[in-house]
Design brief:
The chain is an alpha/beta fold. The chain has helices at residues 3-15, 60-65, 93-97, 116-125, 159-184, 251-261, 268-271, and strands at residues 38-44, 54-55, 77-78, 84-85, 101-108, 144-150, 190-195, 216-221, 228-231, 249-250. This is Twin-arginine translocation pathway signal sequence domain-containing protein.
Length: 283
């Protein structure tokens, strides 16, 4: 997904059509009273290392677990006294300062599956880890959706430069999308949500990378978003049995937030259970 394709998506929202093939799938919503009319899902394919994306910069255990991969405080983008972003995410700081970017930490599901295929399937169908459901959660429904996939986040080795480049691409494209949608007047009714099949292990490996993990942090952006930190910050003293971050927010809570904002009143019929939306939207 290059910059031109991202800007084509912005044009699709402004003009009502999409012309970039497989990178974009749109379904139309009839819910005129919804606070959000358009949803952009950005998949960080491979399992994004959330611990170096949204950094517990004040936790000394972070540097113990990652003597080579840890981001130094002088390079990190400070959000508050305890939390920072990877320096490659600098283009997103304008959205953060405008209170238009929410960061939800500790997102995942119970008994996390470390298989790429199975974990993507769980996220796509909004199922439990031991449940197999037919069809995606978005198929159960009436939203205008643009789906984008960025590949390359399975960083088992040589992560430092690879991850920095991936996050720089993500931040640049999202910043460009935001600027274009602000100019077109569509930003106030757009919600952007990142996904990834899992996070990564807290401890770096011998190859200069990280292995498959569990919980992760995710971004939700839009003109109607109430910015800030939500969810459960990483507890590096309470890792799961395989060294992943513990889950504090079920991923279907993000979906319930989306469905509620898009006017889908009975999200439980789509998600298979009741999940309370996060208070991240202003309207």
């Amino acid at each position: 997904m290059d910059r031109r394709e991202f800007l084509s998506i912005a044009g699709a929202f402004a003009g009502g059509l999409c012309s970039i093939g497989d990178a974009c799938a749109i379904a139309h919503s009839d819910t005129s009273s919804a606070s959000i009319r358009s949803l952009v899902i950005v998949d960080l394919d491979g399992g994004n290392d959330a611990l170096n994306t949204v950094i517990p910069i004040a936790d000394a255990r972070y540097r113990v677990l990652r003597p080579k991969l840890a981001i130094s405080k002088d390079r990190a983008l400070m959000l508050d006294e305890r939390t920072a972003l990877h320096p490659s995410l600098l283009p997103l700081m304008s959205a953060w300062r405008a209170n238009e970017m929410a960061i939800v930490q500790g997102v995942g599901y119970d008994a996390p599956n470390r298989s790429h295929f199975r974990s993507r399937q769980i996220w796509d169908t909004a199922s439990h880890a031991d449940e197999y459901r037919a069809g995606g959660w978005l198929d159960r429904v009436n939203l205008k959706v643009t789906h984008i996939t960025l590949h390359g986040f399975d960083t088992h080795e040589r992560q430092s430069h690879r991850h920095a480049a991936l996050l720089a691409t993500l931040a640049e494209r999202l910043a460009s999308l935001r600027a274009s949608l602000i100019a077109s007047g569509a930003w106030s009714r757009t919600l952007v949500m990142t996904r990834s099949e899992f996070g990564r292990a807290a401890r770096e490996n011998a190859a200069g990378g990280t292995d498959h993990g569990a919980a992760a942090a995710h971004f939700m952006m839009g003109g109607g978003v109430r910015g800030g930190l939500f969810g459960m910050p990483p507890r590096l003293d309470r890792l799961d049995a395989d060294g992943g971050l513990s889950v504090g927010v079920d991923f279907r809570t993000l979906y319930a937030t989306v469905l509620d904002a898009c006017g889908q009143i009975d999200s439980s019929s789509i998600l298979g259970a009741r999940f309370a939306p996060l208070p991240i939207l202003r309207v």
